[in-house]
Amino acid sequence: MESMTDTLTPLRPLAKMADVVRIENVWDEPDALIESVKQRTPFNLIYGAAAYDKLGGADPWFRDYWVSEKHSDASELVHHLHNPKLIQAAKRAFKATIVRPQSLCWNLHAPMVAGRPHFDQAPYRGIDRESLPTWLLFVIHHSQLFLPWVVPSTTGLSFFYRGRYGAFEYWPDGPDMPSVREAPPFWNVGVVTDNEFMFHRPHAVGEPERRFKTGEVGNDAKLHHLPGGGWKIVDGEREHRRLHEDEIRFSMVWKAMVFKDEAAEAVFDNHTDDLSLDIVWDVLGDDLKARGVSRGLPAEPMEDRQFRTLLLREYPNPGQHYFPEAKWR
Predict the structure, then answer these.
(1) Rounded alpha-carbon distances, angstroms, from residue 285 to 71, 125, 140, 278, 293
(2) Which CATH number is correct for 20-277, 3.40.190.120, 2.40.30.160, 2.60.120.620, 3.30.2010.10?
(3) What is the tens place of the pLDDT at every residue in 180-213?
(4) Cα separation of 129 and 255, whole Å?
(5) Quick check: pTM over 0.85?
(6) Parallel, antiparallel, or unpaired: how do β-strands 21-24 and 186-193 relate?
(7) Is 198 within 8 Å of 172 (Cβ atoms)?
């Protein structure tokens, strides 16, 4: 039987990223949105403690989830998912006809050093991201061996920051070409594009003398908004220096699935060409053999720690090939 993967034209040509579409005045009441965020304090760091141990320490990068599969406590905010400007921009960026908004969250950056150039984690047909370990999701995505099963996904970023620093930097033509920066001060300005296969990062935030060094805040730090204005970061019982009201950089992260047409949407909905773990192990095994790696697949590949180490070594974050700062610190 012929695979649907063989009959459908991929939405994302491998030689070219999706376009970047810039939007002015993304939201009708931007100041009210920011006030809504502040009322939901305190905020946790974007990763867990174990991740920061591997990364070499935490940066003061916090997150507030409004709508997602795992976080549904902000159900009264779901209507923000269906922003028509973001939806139309996603159609333009991907030359798609169907957009399905999926999630909404906020990134809150205290003064910090620049982030690493990276890809966001892409969804794949048939792969439940909640049931697989993070390391295997990284291998699937970083190997770029499973592109026929990618669910095209777009990111809309809306920026709110009036400081001099804190640009959004991205590489729309690939890591070998010059980057582009959306530079502050910006308020209610957005870009919609493909963060799953386009390197991007937040630039350093805040005045240089006010930036926290990586590891200066603890792995379990929380960001609190103060009733009278301003912010504080608390690690357990330790409180760091207070921050002014305007020292936090806000960016809203909107995620949506996009489909070129109804045929592509049907492949996703009807599960006619899903990726399975059996396929994952077969593809990885064949590729390892082609690379000259002599070890075969273990009987229990998910449980074999040596095999996990091998896969992570063979399929690292692609950014490490291009950006020294993308490596572990």
Answers:
(1) 36, 20, 13, 11, 9
(2) 2.60.120.620
(3) 999 999 999 999 999 998 999 999 999 999 999 9
(4) 15
(5) yes
(6) antiparallel
(7) yes
